[in-house]
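Late entry, pyridoxal-5'-phosphate complex.
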Amino acid sequence: MDRIPYSCQAIEEEDIEAVAAVLRSPFLTQGPEIVRFEAAIAEMHGAAHAVAACNATAALHIACMALGLGPGDRLWTSPISFTASANCGLYCGATVDFVDIDPVTRNMSVEALAAKLDQASRTGQLPKIVVPVDFSGLPCDMPAMRKLADQYGFSLIQDASHAVGAQIDGHPIGRDADIVIFSFHPVKIVTTGEGGVAVTQDAELARQMALLRSHGIIRDENLMTNPSEGGWYYEQIMLGYNYRMTDLQAALGLSQLSRLPAMWQKREERARRYDDLLSELPLRLPARANDRQSAHHLYVIEIDETRSTVTRRELYDRLSTAGIGANVHYIPIHLQPHYRNMGFEPGDFPAAEAYYRRAITIPLFPRMTDEQQDRVVDCLKSALA
Ligand SMILES: *Cc1c(COP(=O)(O)O)cnc(C)c1O
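Prediction complete; structure with ligand written out below:
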């Protein structure tokens, strides 16, 4: 029997055509497709600016830099995320800390954030940036986080790598953060192969990020320090990187975006079907919130330890033996050796650690068939019987 992956990109002929057209064009990178892709992403989120990058990790890095994060500053994020959500703070020489999750939504807990901010304000250790993560595609309570950001004076980078197409109150996410980051890695909602984007309403932040993405180099004479010496002349005015996306990637992304509603519909159907088929098992299923529409990037189940003695390891191995590509999202970041070396310890974020002990991600992707889904469900039923 074919192995069922936990996630899988959906590439159509039209995607291949779009990439081939760029290959036949004069620009493989820094051409018109990037501009079109950025405009499409910005429009979709009602945002003034989108800055595409070679991946979401790079986008997180330049977002932190544009917001002025540096040595002596603090960045807080969720321990239940991919390590990039925290590493971007370390790249800037800042100190990274975490805020525990809400066990129901698995997102950063607003209560825990409020309590930690209150504490930090007394000791003069407030963060400069907080990075909430829309885990599995379910949007964080961004309006509440915005209030706290305004009250305590920090910036919000929403790591929406899982949440392309997600909504709050019927609007695409992104209205409450200073910068919103999306990833287009092949396991994510839509793909550009590798790719990421930073979305913002702020023209100055967008300008900074665009500069940082391309070596800190300008070609606009009005912004130069010295008079232009001719048509070839450019100036490097700060230290930037080569974090550019190619036109090949942008063309793939644009083509994929045109099918986002249809792909979301398929994910929603699969998620609902899991909700029904798994409802009787000793599991905690993903939360649904009336005011929020998840992008359904991941379908994470947790073994209910009060109703089952099966361990996560046993369940993972059973699925794996049956040819089902389960996964675990995520090992809490603070327990990674690199972060343990900074002084984090087991017990620091109990809700995240309890979640990790029980969690397993089961396959969900747009092209998943009923038959594949039934195989996953049957395996879970027999393993948990
Ligand atoms: C995938 C992911 C990233 C990094 O994305 P890349 O495009 O692979 O760099 C960052 N944060 C989260 C939450 C992710 O899932």
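The chain has two domains: 13-257, 260-384. Will revisit in the morning.
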